[in-house]
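Summary for the lay section of the report: proteins are chains of building blocks that fold into shapes. Here we show the chain for Arf-GAP with coiled-coil, ANK repeat and PH domain-containing protein and then a coded description of the shape we predicted for it.
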Amino acid sequence: MKITVDFEECLKDSPRFRATIEEVEGDVCELESKLDKLVKLCIGMIDAGKAYNAANKQFVNGIRELAQQSTKDEVIESSLTKFAESLQEMINYHTILFDQAQRSIKTQLQTFVKDDIRKFKEAKKQFDKVSEEKEAALIKNAQAPRNKQHEVEEATNILTATRKCFRHIVLDYVLQINVLQSKRRSEILKSMLSFMYAHLTFFHQGYDLFSELQPLMKQLGGQLDQLVVDAAKEKRDMEQKHSTIQQKSVKAALQEVSEQDIIPDCRDFCAWRSTSDFSNDDTKLEYNVDADNGIAMEGYLFKRASNAFKTWNRRWFSIQNNQLVYQKKFKDNPTVVVEDLRLCTVKHCEDIERRFCFEVVSPTKSCMMQADSEKLRQAWIKAVQNSIATAFRNKGDDGEKLDRKSSTSTGSLDSGGEPKERSLKGESALQKVLAIPGNTCCCDCGQPDPRWASINLGITLCIQCSGIHRSLGVHFSKVRSLTLDTWEPELLKLMCELGNGVINQIYEARREELGARKPQPGDPRHEVEAYIKAKYVDRRFVRRPSDEELRNKVVSLSKQEKRLSSSSEHLPPRPPPPTPKLRPGSNVSGQSVKSADSGIQNSADGSREMLATTPSNNSLADGDVAESPPMPMPATLPPPSPCKEMVFYEPKEYSPGLQLYWASCARSLPDMAEALAHGAEVNWVNTDEDKRTPLIMAVQGGSLVTCEFLLQNAANVNQQDAQGRGPLHHATMLGHTGQVCLFLKRGANQNAADIDEKTPLTIAVEAANADIVTLLRLAKMNEEMREAEGPYSQSGDETYQDIFQDFTQMASNDPDKLNRYQQYDPQRP
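The coded shape description reads as follows.
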């Protein structure tokens, strides 16, 4: 009911007016309470709607994921995708509905309560106050004594002013009451009508959406009946196949028992089984013959590892593309056991304890395998023999080879791990590095007594700057502790070759010219971080050389390399290196190092000779080790071509990459660091020099530290030149044992072959370099041991670790002992 107040009545201030005012005030107070409650309920409804929408979105995402998982079933994928889209549209409609509810109910009614009802309350306060003042003035006027004229006049004046003020305020109050009573109807109805129209739109949109979806739903409903019938039929067929196979399995078990009781002799047993019909059925159950995919035969076999323990591991073998390969898991890339079956033979193995064993022998390795039964062994042997015959028939065809790039046979230590390394640690490494001029203070902020280092830049850092360097990423800076981490000898020598002074001359060459302030100890971290990023990431302070300066630098480095080469040619022959000392109990005799993969088959009698693996009879400590016999040179392996003499050709253009190229050969680490600061690509390829890289040139220069510097700056240890030779090839050809050891530790692929099909091991054998043969053989053995022990194995054999540690120490601290072999000469007898 709308309550209005008469303006004439309010001037009289009659009891009727007071009763009306009291009724209006109670009504407005109740209205405010109801509106507040409605707004709170609206807020709760909106929050619940948002939570509902969030849960709905997760449900729709689940439908989408199920559709993506069902990509092979077009009906399920398309239907679920359409349903998810429709439900997502409904979520969008719900969101619009809740937004409209917030605008129409919450916002609009809150505005009405806060504005209009607040004005009413303020007007009521003024009205109550002036009413009290008027009542007081009337009482004072009535009490004024007649004989005191001045009190009478004062009371009369106050009463007159108070009545005038009362009339003005009461009229405003009545106006506010009437306006509020008039507006409440429109505001409430407008708000609710807007809210109801939002619902109407929501349901209309939902109806239209599902009307479009209805034909698809009817179509799926019709298909669903047929799908139920087909599923029931498939279930019956599968149950029938299951029953048939189960009966065959029982029959096989009974027949297996009867065969063992009746035919104890192995050969008679084999002959009997080969004529058995059930034997053929069993083979078909376990193996597939799929010539279309190039797979002649596949199945599980036990493989004997070539480590000292001769462990057996179950692997999935297959004969495909004239190769014998195996996998640990189906997703793993296959490991090639035999690359070309034409060069192999297969035979039974009856002289070992295990049953059903056979051996595949190639010119470079042999592989011992075990089948589950005699008939399966015969099947595998026959499959290998047939594949050999087929390969000879098709030897004119270019068969596809398996991808060996991802083979697990890397033959090296993990580059990130340093197990059992006898390296410097703590104060000894700290003292050596801080002894370099400029290294006693942080390279970037000058903080004294630094305890951290960037190993690819060759600088020392305080703890704050080291944290900033670490945040740059390892492609800019690799941070290590000088006191907590272990330091390999070659890495420590790298730190001593560079230092803060050298690097700051490069990276801060233009700092004073540009007016940049170098941070000081105690400066805010954000200022130091900005400076370090400008210095190493943006290289803002590096002085870019002119074309003439770059040309002069490159020519000077090439001449420096020639001087080094010419001076080294006249050095007297070096004495043979001592044999690395082995730990007590380590077995590195021919029995331990020798593996099934390191033998050489003699084509005449099938025997295999092992290449010598013991370097010499000199020891690092007291004790005698027998000298190894001369290395046999297989006549089947043609000698690799000799290394080309390095000649400086006038290039088409001079670049930082060319500077890095010649600086690597000239063993000048400061010039290499300068070239990298000028933007040289660490794997830059010199197309005029057989596509050689700076790392290959570092091998030619003979410096272990130069190679370490390039590797720490992300040089590719397996990048090949035009002859297909990587750094490991070149180090082997030049007889640089320390570099071979370094590359194997950094992940070099020792199975890579050059254009003459020669691996580093082939070259080392032809050069009769026992040290490098030892390293390559041990790396291969260590890899096979880790492979046999599974993915959670540790670094490998302790013998391998011992020998590599000794070679590392010798290469860094006494390199002359390793350089007993002259450069590889293919014409040498």
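Put simply, here is one thing we learned. DSSP finds 24 helices and 14 strands in the chain.
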